[in-house]
Amino acid sequence: MPKRLEIDWQWPKLLKSKVFFDRSAATTMRKKLVVGNWKMHGRLESNRGLLEGVRDAAITSCEVAVCVSYPYIAQAQSILADSGVTWGAQNCSEYDLGAYTGEVAPAMLADFGCRYVLLGHSERRTLYGETDAVIAAKFGAARAAGLTPILCVGETLTERVAGETLAVIDRQLAAVLNTAGVEALRKTVLAYEPVWAVGTGRTATPDQVQEVHAAVRAKIAAASPAVADGIQILYGGSVKPQNARELFAKTDVDGGLIGGASLVLNDFLAICRATN
Ligand code: PEP
Predict the structure, then answer these.
(1) Is-catalytic flag, 193?
(2) Which atom of ligand 1 lies nearest, measured to the CA of 123?
């Protein structure tokens, strides 16, 4: 008997949406992942303490990664190589090479052992005007270089209040899916980051997060149940040691993308440990 998979393709107002994803069909045990986004913070000396501390903590309850500023990727590589902790960048060019002064090609990141690259972070979208189309192009370029994109999506407060949360996320996801196809999500991480929660100290409630994550997974399941089952969907937005466990306990929350708290070693480690 085929399992029920029912999606409201129109993604109406969040509270009215009807989204079902039959979990009895799911087979994958997704490992939790916690990624630190250092943003434009860090210097050689302070980085060393953080990187060595994360490395030496030898966390096993989840995968751990840090996305550092470009100049410090080599430092991350030298300290984290051969540890269980992986590293990545916070952005990359959509181009492979050429006359793009100031840009960094995905293959350059791969040269320094990056596994991940953040794409579509709300700060890139709002402060640097990155459009869905640019992010989709970066996504394709990153994958072609063997990187795993961490694709960030999320709504502003105005959009949430207007009931447009899922419509916004649908648009952001569709830009990538329409160019790369659903299979490209096999080696992709998604991060739901409501813009109103990023760097504000205001966290979405676990139920709000679960609702969006479940809807995103169901949307992907409509195209490929296997991809939906396997993809890690992280939550980001003022995750702290105090709220991490409750967020990570939700069925469709596969870990976190951590900004401010990733700069404080003990806080970051406590958040990682909240995945157990
Ligand atoms: C982020 O920068 O991706 C983020 C979630 O930041 P913060 O944890 O500080 O809200």
Answers:
(1) yes
(2) 2
